[in-house]
């Protein structure tokens, strides 16, 4: 941090209140030092918000570095050389928007409306600025967008079992006697989980158990470390359930009342012994037994299930298995007990106006964002029965960096017959390949509203400072394009962000923009019985499904009907199990690579700030020391790694504490941070996970050698 830009701590004129807009389950309530009408100082966690509890991550505390960054995009740019050459000419916003509209009209005239693909994701999680692009899409009948990068396997696995995507109040973690942090690197990715878990340890002597594939910053804080091999959590969970049944620690009365087939599960688990699991997941039999006894005897066990362990081709099954374990112990009946993954079901804000869902046409083809490389290189399956994509608006996402099968993504974005407009804050890997770049505002410069996936608050993020001259908010770009493309009279257009916020809040009976300005947030957590599923689980019969109907049970993120089930659905198991759907190692590719988030970047964001880059140092491959020795690799050596999708070079680091055969690369470094100019997603695959799609970012086989 020593050589980072100092944060201006000059006189604080006022304190503003906001929410962190980034794609992080913590969605922190923020206090922002306002130094001038266009300048911020420090950002802090709001201590008045019970979940944030005054704690935020270092990268957002230093937001001044990002918002006042000298490299922010300020002017619309039109490509003046070859794609990616870096030659631009500046344009007025009107001229740039005119050009985009002209290209969209032309593309539509030639190929039909589905040739235009508005593409977006999670740069900001604000409902107005993120989701408004769908209003333009639906009004124009442009191609639909299947957002499969992140939540699919996790949400599907959870909902298949519980019938809903919600759970016990996350604050209850502090009232637990055992907190199992499973497949989430919370210290790095959602720091507030640690606040509440550590409170339980301090105040109640609770044990913190971490289930992960390497000794990451979260596992370093654990009392019990369970180190599984990637993609084997199902085996571990099944063996733990086996022990629970065998030793009389399963809550049979509860199971008879609240689950579909406990007897079937018990008999299925007969052969899922700890010895069976040890051979698959690498966790010694005695550790599996000790873990099962700990959670079986500790009524108040809170299972905090993350996203990371579901980024495997069998991730849905593993999430469902971990959740099933929490049901077998009966943990849901107790305060401080149960399993929590996401509260996304509880918010129920009406987005029909902001997203224009009222004029959504189910006949329009869908494109899977994870398959953007295949889509843009003309793969017929990925094009899903529609025309080639020849025009795009990309807002709020950086697919040239974050999407799998990166070589195809780049090849596609370079196509001469593809027109790409990118609305961005920085010259990202994606923006570099655009035809038109539009500068975007940041969250403190526009109005929006946010939901906390990892907790239960809806938080207002009003405009607090003036943007520099140039950048416009996403909402304004969508409105301006709506006008130029002849849909501005459609319902939902012509409203301000505040109008949208007022509509969503008032329909939910939660007040409006002004009342939220005073109250800052609303807590919409369900009552105890509902949250703990004591009135029944979310399925019609109220029963938890140990035997999910993988392709028929409705899921929270159910893919559009027209896309249907995805991936090898016929290989999904009847009961919780280990299924070898993963990209297993083989003789040519003896290592399994996980590409886990780093602490100082947030997806591809913050890689532009000096303090984050300084902390992350350089792209690194974490190897087991014995694996390294076998390959003749020493700490700090340059290594090459690759598979059929491509290859990369980086430096070795030997202290990750994973099992043999597992290698880890942390962080979405910009592609240019690697020697060859290709990023980590060169190695990851875009094949869909069963049954409802999603990208298996942590499930990649590779070879590794000294470079
Ligand atoms: N600092 C920072 N914070 C972030 C992000 C970021 O990039 N940086 N990204 C944000 C986003 S978009 C999301 S979705 C969340 C994700 O946050 P998390 O839910 O924490 O998910 P990951 O960080 O992807 O992975 C969590 C851990 O799971 C491990 N893991 C991988 N495969 C397996 C497996 O098979 N089994 C087990 N048990 N563990 C496995 C990973 O190595 C990692 O240590 O974080 C958000 N917060
Ligand atoms: N290898 C590997 N790949 C991954 C992952 C992984 O763990 N490993 N994680 C995956 C996951 S979970 C996710 S969610 C995706 C995330 O993928 P993205 O959503 O693409 O990632 P972000 O970096 O969060 O945001 C993208 C861009 O949005 C911009 N942005 C922010 N706010 C605004 C705004 O208000 N307006 C506009 N126009 N732009 C804005 C930022 O500058 C940033 O460049 O990545 C996925 N890719
Ligand atoms: S990135 Fe996550 S932990 Fe950091 S301030 Fe935002 S919501 Fe909080
Ligand atoms: Mo994500």
Automatic annotation (TrEMBL):
Protein name: Anaerobic dehydrogenase, typically selenocysteine-containing
Keyword Iron-sulfur in record: yes
CDD domains per the UniProt record, alphabetical: MopB_3, MopB_CT_3
Family per record: Belongs to the prokaryotic molybdopterin-containing oxidoreductase family.
UniProt region (Disordered), positions on chain: 545-566
Domain 4Fe-4S Mo/W bis-MGD-type: 13-71
Pfam families xrefs: Molybdop_Fe4S4 (PF04879), Molybdopterin (PF00384), Molydop_binding (PF01568)
Organism: Hoeflea phototrophica (strain DSM 17068 / NCIMB 14078 / DFL-43)
Keywords: Iron, Iron-sulfur, Metal-binding
Highest taxon of the lineage: Bacteria
Organism phylogeny: Bacteria, Pseudomonadati, Pseudomonadota, Alphaproteobacteria, Hyphomicrobiales
Single annotated GO MF: molybdopterin cofactor binding
């Amino acid at each position: 941090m020593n050589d980072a830009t100092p944060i201006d701590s000059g006189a604080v004129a006022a304190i503003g209140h906001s929410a962190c807009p980034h794609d992080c389950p913590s969605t922190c309530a923020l206090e922002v030092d306002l130094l001038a009408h266009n300048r911020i100082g420090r950002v802090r966690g709001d201590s008045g918000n019970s979940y944030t509890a005054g704690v935020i991550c270092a990268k957002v505390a230093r937001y001044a570095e990002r918002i006042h960054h000298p490299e922010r995009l300020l002017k619309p740019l039109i490509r003046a050389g070859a794609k990616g050459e870096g030659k631009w000419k500046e344009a007025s916003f009107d001229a740039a928007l005119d050009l985009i509209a002209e290209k969209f009209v032309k593309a539509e005239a030639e190929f039909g409306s589905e040739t235009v693909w508005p593409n977006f994701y999670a740069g900001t999680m604000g409902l107005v600025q993120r989701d408004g692009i769908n209003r333009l899409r639906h009004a124009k009948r442009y191609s639909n967008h299947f957002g499969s990068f992140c939540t699919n396997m996790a949400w599907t696995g959870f909902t298949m079992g519980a019938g809903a995507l919600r759970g016990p109040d996350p604050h209850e973690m502090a009232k637990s006697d055992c907190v199992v942090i499973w497949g989430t690197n919370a210290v790095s990715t959602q720091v507030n989980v640690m606040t509440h878990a550590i409170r339980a340890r301090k105040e109640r002597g609770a044990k913190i158990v971490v289930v992960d594939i390497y000794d990451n910053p979260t596992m370093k804080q654990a009392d019990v470390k369970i180190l599984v091999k990637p993609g084997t959590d199902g085996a571990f969970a099944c063996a733990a359930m086996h022990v629970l049944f065998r030793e009389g620690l399963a809550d049979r009365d509860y199971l008879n009342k609240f689950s579909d087939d406990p007897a079937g599960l018990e008999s299925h688990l007969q052969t899922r012994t700890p010895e069976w699991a040890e051979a698959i997941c690498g966790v010694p039999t005695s550790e599996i037994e000790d873990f099962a006894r700990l959670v079986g005897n500790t009524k108040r066990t809170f299972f905090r299930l993350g996203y990371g362990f579901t980024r495997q081709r069998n991730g849905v099954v593993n999430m469902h298995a971990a959740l099933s374990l929490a049901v077998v112990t009966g943990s849901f009946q107790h305060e401080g007990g149960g399993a929590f993954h996401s509260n996304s079901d509880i918010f129920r804000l009406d987005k029909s106006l902001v997203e224009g869902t009222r004029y959504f046409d189910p006949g329009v083809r869908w494109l899977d964002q994870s398959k953007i490389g295949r889509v843009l290189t003309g793969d017929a399956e990925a094009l899903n029965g529609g025309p080639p994509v020849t025009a795009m608006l990309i807002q709020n996402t950086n697919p040239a960096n974050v999407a799998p099968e990166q070589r195809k993504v780049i090849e596609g974005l370079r196509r001469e017959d593809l027109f790409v407009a990118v609305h961005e804050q920085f010259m990202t890997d994606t923006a570099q390949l655009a035809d038109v770049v539009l500068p975007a505002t940041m969250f403190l410069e526009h109005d929006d509203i946010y939901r906390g996936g990892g907790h239960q608050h809806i938080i207002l993020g009003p405009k607090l400072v003036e943007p520099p001259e140039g950048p416009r908010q996403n909402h304004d770009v969508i409105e301006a394009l709506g006008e130029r493309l002849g849909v501005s009279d459609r319902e939902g257009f012509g409203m301000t962000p505040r109008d949208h916020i007022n509509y969503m809040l008032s329909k939910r009976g939660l007040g409006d923009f002004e009342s939220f300005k005073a109250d800052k947030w609303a807590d919409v957590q369900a009552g105890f019985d509902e949250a703990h599923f004591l009135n029944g689980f979310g399925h019609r019969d109220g029963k938890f499904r140990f035997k999910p109907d993988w392709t028929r049970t409705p899921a929270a993120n159910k893919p559009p009907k027209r896309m249907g089930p995805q991936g090898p659905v016929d290989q999904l198991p009847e009961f919780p199990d280990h299924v070898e759907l993963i990209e297993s190692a083989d003789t040519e590719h003896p290592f399994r690579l996980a590409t886990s988030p780093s602490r100082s970047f947030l997806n591809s964001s913050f890689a532009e700030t000096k303090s984050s880059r300084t902390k992350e140092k350089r792209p690194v491959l974490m190897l087991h020391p014995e694996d390294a020795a076998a390959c003749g690799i020493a700490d700090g050596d340059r290594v090459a790694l690759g598979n059929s999708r491509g290859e990369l070079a980086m430096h070795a680091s030997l202290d990750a504490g994973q099992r043999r055969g597992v290698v880890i690369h942390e962080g979405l470094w910009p592609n240019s941070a690697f020697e060859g100019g290709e990023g980590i997603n060169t190695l990851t695959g875009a094949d869909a996970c069963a049954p409802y799609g999603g990208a298996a970012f942590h499930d990649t086989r590779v070879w590794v050698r000294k470079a």
